[in-house]
Amino acid sequence: MKEYEIFSSLKVPCTSPTVVRLDGRNFSQLSRKLEFEKPYDPEFVRIISEAARLLFQEFSPKLAYVFSDEVNLLLGEIPFAGRVEKMDSVMASFLCGAFTRKIMEQDDFKEKISATKPISFDSRVIPLSRDKVVEYFQWRQLESWRNCLNGYSYWTLREDYSKEEAMQILHKKKSNQLHDLLFEKGIKITQMPTWQRRGVGIYKKGFEIEGLNPLTNEKVISQRKKIFVDWELPLFDKEFFRTNSLLK
């Protein structure tokens, strides 16, 4: 029967930069059940970022980029010999388990989560050429900004209008019109927290550690890399990827 497993040999080219994008399934329903704050719930963002950090520890990618219910991994070493089925299934299930464990640690959510459907994530493997890596993450960061602008616009309108009325007002509005709408309500969207506008990054960053040379009894400075959760991401560009050694 092995011959019927027709997709099991499907692989990504191990010499190409590869991204795995994971998305929460029906997280809008989960958000309502758990009564998350709108448009952003800091506790939810902390939980999914911590789950992504556990995923980072397990698979050692170069970068994990998180916004909304989405996690993007820029892989370093390609796991499972590049087998797409394996990468999709294991990473999605790992993130699901990590997210569920983290959310169950919160007393505010523990009782409510038992009344929801099981949490799940979907996953897709995206092979890229080297010159498209920065462009890919710029694209996702632009989506993070759109989510921020649209989310604040919608939930600001919901203070005075029904769901249907708010959607009708927002229909076909351009970004500059949404800026004006929010400004009239006293909201300066460009001054919202960086993590809301640009997402959260997880990558390894160099730190200086002071030690003692046992032979000379002199202080020495050495470099170590630790996983860093960046809540103040800049706009993605080639310099960010070069400085943090994300394109090697």
Automatic annotation (TrEMBL):
InterPro entries the UniProt entry points to: Thg1_C_dom, tRNAHis_GuaTrfase_cat, tRNAHis_GuaTrfase_Thg1, tRNAHis_GuaTrfase_Thg1_sf
GO biological process annotations for this chain's record? Answer: tRNA modification
The record places domain tRNAHis guanylyltransferase catalytic at 1-128
Residue ranges annotated for the Thg1 C-terminal domain, each copy included: 132-209
For activity, the cofactor(s) needed are:
Mg(2+)
The organism named in the record is Methanobacterium formicicum (strain DSM 3637 / PP1)
Its protein name is: tRNA(His) guanylyltransferase
In which domain of life is the source organism classified? Answer: Archaea
